[in-house]
Amino acid sequence: MSHKHINLLRAIFHDPVSGNIHWREIESLLHHLGASVASAHGARFHATLNGCEEFLHHPHQSNVCDKMLIKQLREFLARAGVTPSTYENDA
Predict the structure, then answer these.
(1) Residue 91 is assigned to a structural domain of this protein
(2) Of the four, 51, 56, 61, 67, which is 20 to 30 A from 25 by CA?
C-alpha cells in the first residue's frame, strides 16, 4: 500500500475526525483495497468490501467530505477488517 493511502487511512481513523478529506481520495482508497464502488441513486454510491456493504453519499456542494461521512466510512472499513494497523507493518 502506498504511503498516500496509509496516511489517508490514518486520517480517517484519527480523532478528532478530519473535515478535509476529498471524495476522490476516498474512492481511490476503496478501489485500492479491492472494494466494488458502484453509482446508486443520485449522489449515493454502493460500496462492497470483504463481504460488507454500505451506501455512501458523495458530497453535494464540494468534493470535501463532511465529518459524518468520514465517521460512516470509518465504521464501514472497521466492519470490513480494514484499519491503519493492518497496513502499517507493510509500510
Answers:
(1) no
(2) 51
How far apart CA 79 and CA 49 sit, in angstroms, is: 9
Range of the domain at 34: 3-83
Residue at 44 is within a domain: yes
Single pTM value for the model: 0.89
| Dist CA 79 CA 4 (whole Å) | 22
> Do the Cβ atoms of 6 and 82 come closer than 8 Å?
no
Distance between CA atoms of residues 47 and 80, nearest Å:
11
* 90 part of a folded domain: no
Give 28-72 as a DSSP string.
HHHHHHT-EEEE-STTEEEEEETTEEEEEE--SSSSEEPHHHHHH
For the segment 45-61, what is each residue's pLDDT rounded down to a tens digit?
999 999 999 999 988 88
| Grid cell for residue 30 | 476503496
- Residue 82 identity: V
